[in-house]
Amino acid sequence: MKFIGIIIINLVFTVSGLIAAYSLKEKEIICRELSLMARTIKTELSFSSASYSEIIKRMKNEKILSHLSFICTLNYEAPDIITPLSAEENERINYIFRQLGSVDTASMLDELTAFEGYFNERRELHSEQVKSRSKLYIASGMLSGAAVTVMLL
């Protein structure tokens, strides 16, 4: 019975380390998808006469943007988008959606270019964090489980 408890404790701590590592990877994925979303909106605005709300509605069905769940429930009047990213990054997302439709197309394309560049930089930052911290989080989870096991024995 003791051994089953030891195994369960170690599994729980290891899984918590895996979850922490996955949350870092999710931030990288969201930044990549935000950059792709900006590029898509820029292309649509440049080459079609569709409004931004029509463009966003079409993007709801894109599987490549699956981590951007806020697109499905987006309030076009007053966007209040919350993602696993930092508060600064969330504010940048809200800003771009507030700008959509309120400025002329040329200004919007400039804003989207800056938005895309910002999230490309953030993706690179999160990618470096994944490389440097994910193994650390997993190892910390495993070692914490071993420490608790030793204390209980």
Layout of helices and strands, plus pairs?
Layout: H1 2-47, H2 52-59, H3 87-99, H4 105-152
Description:
The protein has 153 residues and is mainly alpha-helical. The protein has four helices and no strands. It has helices at 2-47, 52-59, 87-99, 105-152. Helix 1 (2-47) runs antiparallel to helix 2, helix 1 (2-47) packs antiparallel against helix 4 and helix 3 (87-99) runs antiparallel to helix 4. The mean pLDDT is 87.
- N-to-C SSE string, H for helix and E for strand: HHHH
C-alpha termini separation:
13 Å
Percent range of helical residues? over 70%
SS element count, helices: 4
**Beta-strand percentage range:** under 5%
Anisotropy-based shape: elongated
The number of distinct β-strands equals 0
Largest sheet: none
Write a brief structural summary.
With about 150 residues, this protein is mainly alpha-helical. The chain has four helices and no strands.
Question: What key phrases describe this protein's structure?
Answer:
single chain; 153 residues; mainly alpha; 75% helix; elongated
